[in-house]
Amino acid sequence: MASISSLGIGSGLDLNGLLDQLQDAERGKLEPIERQLETQQTKISAYGQLQSALSAFQDSADALNDSALYESLSTNVGGEAITATADAEAQPGSYNVSVETLATRGTLASDGVATADQAITTDAQELTLNFAGSPSQVIDIAADSSLEDIRDAINANESAGVNATIVNDGTNFRLALSSRETGADASIESFSFDGAAPFAADTENTLQSGTDAALTVNGIAITSSTNQVEGAIQGVSLNLEEEGESTVKVEQNTLAVREAVTSFVDAYNDLKGTIGKLTSFDAETGAAGELLGDSAVRTVESRMRIALTSGSEGQFSTLSDIGISLQRDGTLEINSDDLDNAIANNQGALSEFFAGASEENGMAGQLSNTLEQLLGSNGTVTGAITGAENRSESLVERYTRMEQSIDQTISRYRTQFGQLDGMIAQMNQTSSYLTQQFDALDAQLGRD
User: Which residues form the Flagellar hook-associated protein 2 N-terminal domain (predicted)?
Assistant: First the structure.
């Protein structure tokens, strides 16, 4: 039988079109799998949104579960002379601070030289820098050094105690030194070379001694070599900005607690909003959220409701006692007056309510533990994600097997159609030959 290179050539039939229709019909078997796979991918994405919202809520609960939050202090500064920060060792109190002088750096310049980039030394030598109350420092100067080379040698030495620049006074170039640290002891006083000096220190005209800061705290005189004063007030760092008067109040950091509680409420409401979107249903359009009726979501909502409404012993036993109420739509709402009163006057009771005596005793600790159970490796949400991923992988394998089966079926059809095409072509040839023979026989019989 002759070989047919293109279906339909031999028979004149549209076998390619027929084969395409059969292939479309066969691939229709993949559509249910594709829909199931899309559903699982959508669920995985939705579980991811739920997981993210739960994690954010857990972070906010963990912040409230830290007893140090309710013990933190802040500084309230009046006046422009200082800024201040408090650490864990600070104690509540009020202080009057008077800044008389700021700490400054000592400066000194050299005599002038004609050029900055040409050699002014012949032999290698040492440059000694002398300070008011600190040890002298020795800088190695190479032979044939220019003023720029001497500057670079000073700046490259981490122990030099000064920074060096070059200043042009309009006629000559000068080496200008500035103490790296503020204060009288760190002040540069002079310098000298141990060999032929290329220039001298201009101590008469350019020497400006560094000074210590002078201030009083509640009338007590204090000096500091820097403008950052530690220890003058226990646990408080004073940063001197300018000469003048300021007040410092060290008090409970109510703002930090307020922000932590507000973040907790906002994170829960965001979680509630995410769940609402994922489980929504529009009766008019029939559109449904990705996790409508999902058992994992129902478990999350039930566990959250129990954790938020459970009471505890103490001055504050429920969220409503501190001004946080559960609304009809399931969200939380803050009564600012009640919350501010609890924060301002009862931080100890607030700490006991949220943080408790141990990490899991308070409401925030119990809630964080519940969230960990939901989000952990064996938790409800993680299990739902794993289940959806496993189903998705199974569907992909099923899809691949089905696709391979379809390809094999279509390949078999193509072979059969080729055989059919060849057979019909041969039959057509035989029919044409017989017709010719019969026509010739009829013509011969007609002549006889």
Answer: 11-104
